[in-house]
Amino acid sequence: MSKQQGFTAQSPGLADGGTPPAPADAREGGGLRGRIGVLELTLTVLAFSAPMVVVTGPTPFVIIFGGAGAPLAFVLAMAVLLLFAVGYTAMTRYLPNPGAFYAYITAGLGKITGLGSSFLALFAYLAFAVSTYAFFAVVANALVSLVLGGPDLPWYVYALAGVAATGILGYFRIDLSAKVLSAVMACEVLLVGAFDAAVLWDGGARGTSLTPFTWHALGSGSVGLAVLFAVMCFVGFEATAVFREETKDPERTVPRATYLSVTAIGVFYVVSAWCLILAYGTESAQKVAESNFAGMFSSAAGTFLGTWAGDAVTVLVVTSAFAALLAGQNILARYCHSLGVDRVLPMRLGKVHPRHGSPHISSLTVSAVILVAVSVLAFTTSDVAATFSQLAGAAAFAVVALMFLTTVSVVFFFRRNRDVADVSVWHTVVAPVLSGLGLGAILWLCLTNFTTMTGGSAASSIVYQVLMGAVFLSGMALALLYRSRRRDVYARIGRQTVG
Questions:
Q1: Residue 405 has pLDDT above 90, yes or no
Q2: Residues 6+ apart with CB under 8 A from 471
Q3: Domain of 435: which CATH number?
């Protein structure tokens, strides 16, 4: 069985009891179009992780829980996610569908679970988007009012401006967004790289030390929570498959970009956390993180690079947050587009712009939904920072759950397709099982430490968990409804036989 034949017509299409092959894809305007390569795709999805935001925000939290061993926590997180990438990328060779979580979970666990997962994915990325708009608005206002001496405006003014800007960029061809995201990422990497080099050159506060990479250093803190927060910093790399149709050579570009994303961002976080700890000394870093987590990195950058670096960090945190907004806009638009093509959601969402090759209707719809969400927040919340934390934590939990379901799906998918001869047991069983064990442990940590993840109350944690469960079950219920009343739509779920 060849790669293209590997799974375009066999058992997964019949996994739910005799479902006929899905009808041919008939998208108005043709398929999505783009010519992004490995590097641009990598930078596009990494922008969603907002590396500069992570270095200045979540990284100090990893240090709070992991102490001087925080870099090792990032190493462990990277190892689990690289194992996840093994099975994830193996499936990309047999599923020419850009649905990512939606397509892969459907292929392995069936249409009902797959559609429930797609709804959970929409919730996750929408929650990330809204939380990032809140964060972007707060830091943009701080930049304008405190650094540039401008007016102190309500946070939602900047949030609405962000909605407009991402809506415009998301309407056009993906190549434009990729160029914007690549430029922003380059600036972030240059500044953090300069800081790392300066710290290593000077030896930090008490000399260069490899203590942060020892188990003793990590074991002295809360290992589970440190790894949990480290994994949260990687969210976004899994979206490489969403852009499959818009790459130059998807069978090679998507797997390479996935591995490169995990490795590049992992090394970036490991080295940055190490140098941030060295900047204050292995004995003092945890105390500094606890007392000044928000200013930990900018203060260290100012010390080792000069006062200009502190202002540069402030600027790049704003641009990093905007890049995350744009990347999230593109991811959400393509999920909605895929569900529109499958007719699970209104068919208009599956339309492609005849000139730009973009999912313009889906992108505009996403902008409208986010506009409503931001408007509601503007009238209902008095603590936008708390809202950002709670939404981001809930979204991270949902993504970890989807990763766990995906790695389980990989095992089932290849067990049903034993005649696939060009993948090894490592790709189809060993790595997925190991990543499943790791992700299962992390998912349990998420559940038992949900309040810590979100920074909210026990009551709000229950509300978010119930909401996510309801979203997942509503997707499953809709699939059951389609199976009983609209067999043609049910047959299209996951688009397993559509090339």
A1: yes
A2: 119, 120, 122, 123
A3: 1.20.1740.10
